[in-house]
Structures are given as C-alpha cells and as structure tokens.
Design a protein that fits this description.
287 residues; alpha/beta; 10 helices; globular; Spore Coat Polysaccharide Biosynthesis Protein SpsA, Chain A
C-alpha cells in the first residue's frame, strides 16, 4: 500500500462551526513545526452549511485539507463517518480527533517523534484530554488565542483543567480513588477513547469502527477493545505533546436513549463473543 502523507488528521463535523474554527486554527499553529506536505486533514461533513464550506475553503491554501460532503442529514452516524474518512485518507498513520478540540503547538511533531521509534510501530498512541471550562472555551472560540496563549494559559496551567477521567496512566491509576467501580473503562490499558493515532494498516485489519453502532454510544469502547486485543499495546503519555484540549459546548441530542440501549447490547454481545476483526463489506464507509 502506497501513502502520500505521513499521517491523516481525521474528524467528523455537523453543527459545530465555532468548534471547527478553533480546531483548524490550532492545527495551523501546530503545522509550523512539521513539513506541511507530510500530513492532511480530512473532515467528513454530516450536514449542510455554507459558512462551513467557506471556512474550510479558506484553509485550502494553507493546509492539505479534504472536505468530504456526504449530504447525509440523518442521525450523527459517527462510526460510518470515521470509516468514510479513512476510506478517503492517504496517510500511513491516522489521527482521530473530535472536532471540538484544540491541539497544542507540539502535537504534530510529537506524533512524528513517537512513531519514528521502530518499537512503536505496532501500537496505538492515545491522546490525553483536558477539558477547558466555559470561560476558557469562550475565549478560544472568540479567536483570542495564539501559540503563546496556548503555552501559557492552557499547557502552562494544565492542572487547573479537568482531566478526562478515563484517561490515566497505570501509575496515575494507582494513586486515584474512584467513588464507585468504573468497569466500562479500560483502566491501565491506555486505550483512550476517541482521540488516538495508529497505523492505517491496523485500523483496516480490525475492520475499523463497527457501522452497526448508530449515533454516539459504545462505538469507541468496541473499537478500542478490538484494537487492544489485536495489537496488545497502547500508550498514554503524560506530556503536553500528546495532550489535546476539549472545548466546551452545549450537549447535542446525538446520544438518544434508544440508540444507547441498542449500542450497549451490541457492545456486550461483541465482547462476549470475542469479536476482534470485522469484515470490510462493500458499503463500508460509504454514504
């Protein structure tokens, strides 16, 4: 398999214009430290918005960016959308990031450094997540951030930002006390959730995201379980290089009760049956 880029930065989008502005601007800042021709950005758009079209077009001369407009206005079909991105990617590695994220300046060079070590070839790098509060999120959404601001107010004061509680290293888990059992998270295995980088080859070999999961619920858990069972290795590194910041926004209706129940049962059934690899059907990643 031939590759045009070192890695493909992948995200899905619908009704998140302000988040997209922050995301693209932070990627542009991070691109200063790598060859801009070494990576691409792929955004699958699950909605219709002229402002989004114009925003992405404004970055076309600054970054290698693909805007996959699938014209799908149904449920937020995350699993199929991510597979669609991978189907259209040309990177040796794929980096999954939620659209409501801000990456640090060292993010892209950090990924390159990590995978330049041949011992890290067959593994999954999980990006740690810190949540920005409402005030900080509004500031960056209004465009009031640059590289210096990120280093000083986000990275420099990272301890004040809430850490995604399922993303702790093994040593940190030993020091952490949970108020109740959290068996649904893969504590200590450094699998992360929806923010990671791995070889595209391995993503395809496990069959990518299971497209039977519709909406948003359990699809990450299922994918992570299969990947870890296949690779047997995952890394979560407590370093700003591999940390992203999640920008606050109002909750969407993507996680419906009906889909959550259905997805949960599907996940439990898949886990019980020990499913690791999924077949890539003809309509995989196709809308």
């Amino acid at each position: 398999m031939s590759y045009k880029f070192f890695n493909s930065i992948i995200s899905t989008h619908r009704k998140r214009f302000n988040s997209l502005k922050v995301f693209l601007r932070s990627i542009l800042i991070s691109s200063k430290y790598v060859d801009k021709n070494s990576f691409e950005i792929i955004i699958t758009d699950l909605g219709k918005n002229l402002k989004v079209d114009n925003l992405i077009a404004s970055y076309s001369d600054k970054l290698n960016i693909k805007h996959c407009k699938v014209g799908f206005n149904g449920i937020f079909w995350k699993s199929k959308a991510l597979n669609h991105c991978v189907l259209n990617s040309e990177g040796k590695y794929i980096t999954m990031i939620d659209i409501d994220s801000l990456v640090p300046p060292s993010f892209l060079i950090g990924i390159k450094d990590f995978f330049s070590n041949p011992n890290m070839n067959r593994t999954k790098l999980c990006h740690r997540v810190r949540y920005l509060d409402v005030r900080e999120s509004k500031r960056v959404a209004d465009g009031n951030f640059n590289e210096e601001y990120i280093k000083k107010h986000l990275i420099g004061k990272a301890k004040k930002h809430r850490l995604a509680w399922e993303r702790y290293t093994k040593n940190e888990n030993k020091l952490r006390t949970f108020t109740k059992p959290q068996t649904r998270w893969f504590a200590g295995e450094a699998l992360g959730n929806s923010h990671f980088t791995m070889k595209k080859k391995y993503y395809l070999e496990v069959g990518g995201y299971d497209e039977r999961f519709v909406g948003w619920s359990c699809e990450d858990m299922d994918f992570n379980r299969r990947v870890f069972a296949y690779l047997g290795s995952g890394y979560l590194i407590a370093s700003p290089k591999y940390t992203i910041f999640s920008v606050y926004h109002t909750r969407s209706d993507w996680m419906s009760v009906k889909n959550t129940k259905k997805n949960t049962k599907m996940y439990q059934r898949s886990k019980k049956n020990g499913v690791i690899k999924l077949p890539i059907e003809e309509n995989w990643g196709v809308f």
